[in-house]
Amino acid sequence: MVYEPLNFDRLLGTKGFSDQLLKNHFALYQGYVTNTNKLVDLLSTFVKEGKSGTPEYAELKRRLGWEFNGMRLHEYYFGNMTKGGAELDRNSKLFKKILEDFGTYENWENDFKAVGKMRGIGWAILYYDPVAGRLFNFWINEHDVGHLSGANPILIMDVFEHAYMIDYGLKRADYIEAFFEAIDWKVVANRFSEATAKVIKY
Known about the structure:
Layout (H helix, E strand, L loop, with lengths): L18 H30 L6 H25 L13 H10 L2 H12 L6 E7 L4 E7 L11 E7 L6 H4 L3 H10 L3 H12 L6
Antiparallel strand pairs: 1-2, 1-3
């Protein structure tokens, strides 16, 4: 299977995000797609040629996690954004779950933003753990390290410098505010509904 980059041009013109920033970000995402395809092909060739026990194969296999997650996390990120944003339905299952796990929506939002403001590069992700049936705001540093095994990413915010520095310089907090104005909560709520519908068996 060949992965094809998704088109997110619908986001051009989003308040708080210059078209230059978004186009640069789309190009970076497309690079992850390209590199994922290259690595899948290379690794398949190594196996066919009997080279799967080589150090080169091992390093490429490790690199695949970085490229693939870089591709997929950007798809989640752009996918949960829309021009003008879409409000979170206060009667939705997701909103009620946020209240259950965090006490108030404001508590959740403050926690998520605090995760996004942590020093370092990475991602702020709202996960749903279907085993415990609870939500977590989590920090991911490198694309391929630190994900919650078995948990479903519900809301993803990119906090690598490329996501904001053209427009905001070092003012990451201002970027986070702009991101919140662009969240498509309908998409996020749908992800939560899909995650909660899964039956977990070991």
